[in-house]
UniProtKB/TrEMBL annotation:
<dbReference type="InterPro" id="IPR053136">
    <property type="entry name" value="UTP_pyrophosphatase-like"/>
</dbReference>
<feature type="domain" description="YgjP-like metallopeptidase">
    <location>
        <begin position="6"/>
        <end position="112"/>
    </location>
</feature>
<dbReference type="Pfam" id="PF01863">
    <property type="entry name" value="YgjP-like"/>
</dbReference>
<protein>
    <recommendedName>
        <fullName>YgjP-like metallopeptidase domain-containing protein</fullName>
    </recommendedName>
</protein>
<dbReference type="InterPro" id="IPR002725">
    <property type="entry name" value="YgjP-like_metallopeptidase"/>
</dbReference>
Length: 120
């Protein structure tokens, strides 16, 4: 269990993540013309996001520590699964059309993603 100060800071990060990320997801969903069921901020050490078969989006609260272009890439990536379930060329074309710097975001995550996984 985390000490009280670290738990409080983690709660603060999670709250800020929801406040920043959920409205961005709503805007991108509208832009893509998709509807999701609900969004949850998750606490995974293995995924930045996921989209369930019930159209629920799960986004890692640790993304709040990433640059906005990375957050946008993850949001759009997951929302695009509501259109195209697999990582087909069509899938990647849709993501790239919404996030022009998709390759930069993927590179940033590959090079810096581990930094986001630290507890704080």
């Amino acid at each position: 269990m985390l000490p009280f100060g670290r738990r409080a800071l983690r709660r603060w990060f999670k709250k800020r993540a929801a406040e920043k990320i959920i409205p961005r997801a709503e805007r991108f969903a509208q832009s893509l013309g998709v509807k999701y069921n609900q969004i949850q901020m998750t606490d995974s050490k293995f995924r930045w996001g996921s989209c369930s078969t019930k159209d629920n989006l799960n986004l890692n609260w640790r993304l709040i520590k990433a640059p906005v272009f990375v957050i946008d890439y993850i949001i759009v990536h997951e929302l695009t699964h509501l259109i195209e379930g697999n990582h087909t060329p069509r899938f990647w074309n849709i993501v790239h059309a919404q996030v022009a710097n998709m390759d930069k975001a993927k590179k940033w995550l590959k090079e810096n993603g581990q930094l986001l996984l630290s507890d704080l």
